[in-house]
Amino acid sequence: MYEAAFLSGDPRRVADLTPVSMARQQPLLLARTGWATVVDPRGRDEMERSVIRAIGPEGQSRIEPVRDATAAADAVGSLGDRLVSAGLAVPYEARSDVATAIRQVRLAAPVVPALGASALLAPAQSDIPAHLVALWFALPFVLTLSCLAIARIEIHPYAQWASPAGQRLLSALVRRSGAGDDRTYLTSVAVRGVRAIGEPDLRAAFAHREPHHEAFHRRD
């Protein structure tokens, strides 16, 4: 489930899934007011122990800072490293390059027609017909939109974290999930996030979010 959460979302998705899983097994109580309380301080694995450490020695904390601390924990960083080594997750450098390239193409999309309009409205400086000028700018505009469409098809729906092999693994996991059991429930949360939580009280607990000032950065 942790691997599915990382590949479907990001480190914060893992930090969402782990408390939900703990709450269903009762070592952790999640109040609808947005507070987490430790019932059993013995985590079943390193990810759960990261959540317990994030809550702190008093055994109670607001959920949002716990999620932030868990997402940045060594356990999640090691999970990401293992998935990258296995070829299931995209390395950080590649994710950053793809995101930068998409932002640049999105910026270019409105710039190209604006330049074309400026060229058509400018006083004529040559004998080049207006329709040829429009064609010169129409071609890069079409290419820009095509690149955005390809990027959306290739990256959707698993954002930038799962490699093609990771996406196939996620698809197979979803297909193999049974109906109505606990594993199916956690698979849904791993793939879709907290919006897949069915219990109203538990969903309300995650709705109490504090301002998230810092984005997740790669673990050094």
Keywords:
single chain, 220 residues, mainly alpha, 3-stranded antiparallel sheet, 3 strands, elongated, disordered C terminus
Tally of helical runs: 10
Radius of gyration equals 23 Å
Q: Compute the separation of the termini in Å.
A: 24 Å
Biggest sheet, in brief? 3 strands, antiparallel
- Anisotropy-based shape: elongated
What this model shows, in words?
This protein has helices spanning 2-8, 11-25, 46-55, 63-71, 74-85, 92-121, 130-155, 164-176, 182-192, 200-207, and strands spanning 28-30, 35-38, 60-62. Residues 210-220 have low confidence and may be disordered. Strand 1 and strand 2 form a beta hairpin. The chain has 220 residues and is mainly α. Helix 1 runs parallel beside helix 9 (182-192), helix 2 (11-25) packs across helix 4 (63-71) and helix 3 packs across helix 4. The two termini are 24 Å apart. The longest helix is centred in the middle third of the chain and has 30 residues, at 92-121. 64% of the residues lie in helices and 5% in strands.
Question: How would the blueprint of this fold be written?
Answer:
Blueprint: H1 2-8, H2 11-25, E1 28-30, E2 35-38, H3 46-55, E3 60-62, H4 63-71, H5 74-85, H6 92-121, H7 130-155, H8 164-176, H9 182-192, H10 200-207
Antiparallel strand pairs: 1-2, 2-3
